[in-house]
């Protein structure tokens, strides 16, 4: 889409080259043929180094852009980005690509549905009522149990196991809100990447990224009924127990263990080898590795045990 068309959609003016734009991306990752946006002061520091052709931005920040980056000035950049995201969303179904490819010795149930351009590796087992979307890639020796849904463009590695009714690549919970309180969907145009030797329980949902990828790294174990938000990254060999919830852009280091019903707020980083007892509420980043935590508000596990003992004595 030409930049002039984007400006017209967003009802804003621009001066400069009418470049062909192929997508939307973050300030850090945007290339010379992509548009970005800034709506949070947290990301203002990335403005001066962005390579985006243009940035959707408020008037007071426009002067901080590089000289070769075109400002698209709007009153509500986040709302404008949500409007634009729909135009770069891939089709839900696309019958035009090539037939799916299924590797040697893979068993696919006749009741499963494999979309055009999907790729399934060797020695896989795909059971009844599984749906594999367009351009999804499944590695070798992977087992997918009944009624699993893998949305388009998602990638699953070798030697993985995904149990019944799990959904990989559904839309993240993303929307912009205007001054009237109305909500506008932000189309989630990224994907999910699951690396090798990952096991995922039943009825778990892993959301696709807004841009880029939600990543589940090698050797992760995920229990039933876990929710992983968009753009999360789960470090190698981490363990997430039943009913864990991760808000968008949570980043877990290697070998993090989260007990049942524990949860993170969004945009947090968790140090490697951190352990969280059941129902822990994590509201800020954890920087020191190898510690064990409990409770809400979150505290060291030993401190939490002492607190429980004192409370028990108080009510005797």
Residue-averaged pLDDT: 95
How big is the Rg?
A: 22 Å
Major sheet size, sense and barrel closure: 11 strands, mixed
Structural class: mainly beta
Contiguous runs where pLDDT drops below 50 for at least 5 residues: none
Shape: flat
What is the number of independent domains?
2
Q: What fraction of residues sit in β-strands?
A: 25-35%
CATH superfamily of the largest domain: Hexapeptide repeat proteins
What is the CATH-assigned architecture of the largest domain? 3 Solenoid
| CATH C-level name of the largest domain | Mainly Beta
From the 3D structure, determine the CATH topology of the largest domain: UDP N-Acetylglucosamine Acyltransferase, domain 1
Key attributes of the depicted protein:
3 helices, flat, 9-stranded parallel beta sheet, 2 domains, 316 residues, Hexapep, acyltransferase, EC 2.3.1.191, N-acyltransferase activity, 10% helix, UDP N-Acetylglucosamine Acyltransferase, domain 1, lipid biosynthesis
Could you explain how this protein is built, in words?
With 316 residues, the protein is mainly beta. It folds into two domains: 3-88, Udp-n-acetylmuramoylalanyl-d-glutamate--2,6- Diaminopimelate Ligase, Chain: A, domain 1; 166-304, Hexapeptide repeat proteins (UDP N-Acetylglucosamine Acyltransferase, domain 1, 3 Solenoid), CATH 2.160.10. Helix content is 10%, strand content 27%. The chain has helices at residues 3-10, 77-85, 301-314, and strands at residues 23-24, 34-37, 54-57, 70-73, 101-102, 107-108, 113-114, 119-120, 125-126, 131-132, 137-138, 143-144, 149-150, 155-156, 161-162, 167-170, 175-177, 183-185, 191-194, 199-200, 205-207, 213-216, 221-222, 227-228, 233-234, 239-240, 245-246, 251-252, 257-258, 263-264, 269-270, 275-276, 281-282, 292-294, 299-300. An eleven-stranded mixed sheet has the order 6-9-12-15-20-23-26-29-32-34-35. A hairpin with a 5-residue loop joins strand 17 and strand 18 (183-185). The longest helix is centred in the C-terminal third of the chain and has 14 residues, at 301-314. The chain is flat and about 70 Å long. The termini are far apart. Pfam families: Hexapep, LpxD.
